[in-house]
Amino acid sequence: MLSCSCSLVRPDGRFAPIRSLLLHLLCAGWFLRPSNADTFDIGVKLYTDNNCLFWSQTFLILDSSCYANIWAPNATKGWTMRIVDFNVPQSIDMREYTDDCHSLAMPKRTLVTGPERCTPFLGSMYAQFDIRFRSNTCKGAMCSTLATAVQTFYSAAACAGPAFATFRYPIQNECLRASNGTQDFTVASDDRNITLTDYGGGDECKAQEGVRVRTYDITNTYCYPLYTAEPPRSFSWTVERNTPYAAISTGFRSPPSMLCLLILLLGAVECPAAIRSQGR
């Protein structure tokens, strides 16, 4: 069966005109736009009263990431949220821990999204929740702009081959729970460097008495060597950002040039001709 593939080799063995090749090479940059994997995040609107009238702050939560309980650190140390139902009414499981999200402090709570609900959160705070789509193709007010730092460990040296393990961390200065205290991540304006600040013995990501503060500078996409005799043998950090479609400027993806349009037209003409010649 013939298909409109416009092969570069003619039935007589000679190479066909390279217009099809030019089509792919010159126009692929306009048609294809690389993006990170699509996913969902959790939006939180925080209030100081049980009627959700007095707004405190709004932030985004990375699904299943371990956050520090900065509102009531004497009650629990860490907490996670995980989306469990995308159908309306959407629901989220929230768990609180006595450590870095390994030992449950109490049974999980199932939270329902929606602006009509005012739900107890942590400490004396109340919240409303929603689910945000994170993708370059997302459009509208309910898109997530959460950026993450991805730490990837590799079995081989030089960050080659399949991943041994992968971990993701939010990088908007959120306070995360760690095994020895808390930590937060920030990035430079050009994303070249990631800064990890570790607060040993601290519960709130603050430099306080008795808290050991250590700062680590990490180069984005740089491959770090690790063990030599056993895996993982290397690891890297990568900043990932998705820009919602509604926020993309008109200059992000320029219209195709006249040359590109001409090549498209030539390719469309050549394809039927190639089919006819193959059918003779």
Could you describe the 3D structure shown?
Residues 1-35 and 249-255 have low confidence and may be disordered. A hairpin with an 8-residue loop joins strand 9 (148-154) and strand 10 (163-170). The protein has three domains: 1-34 and 257-280, no CATH class; 36-140, no CATH class; 147-241, no CATH class. It is mainly beta and 280 residues long. Helix 1 packs across helix 2. The two termini are 14 Å apart. The strands form four sheets. A four-stranded antiparallel beta sheet has the order 2-1-8-7, with no helix packed on it. Strands 3-4-5-6 form a four-stranded antiparallel beta sheet, with no helix packed on it. It has helices at 19-31, 258-279, and strands at 39-47, 55-61, 67-68, 78-85, 91-97, 109-112, 119-120, 126-134, 148-154, 163-170, 176-178, 181-187, 193-200, 212-219, 223-225, 234-240.
Write the layout of secondary structure elements.
Blueprint: H1 19-31, E1 39-47, E2 55-61, E3 67-68, E4 78-85, E5 91-97, E6 109-112, E7 119-120, E8 126-134, E9 148-154, E10 163-170, E11 176-178, E12 181-187, E13 193-200, E14 212-219, E15 223-225, E16 234-240, H2 258-279
Antiparallel strand pairs: 1-2, 1-8, 3-4, 4-5, 5-6, 7-8, 9-10, 9-16, 11-12, 12-13, 13-14, 15-16
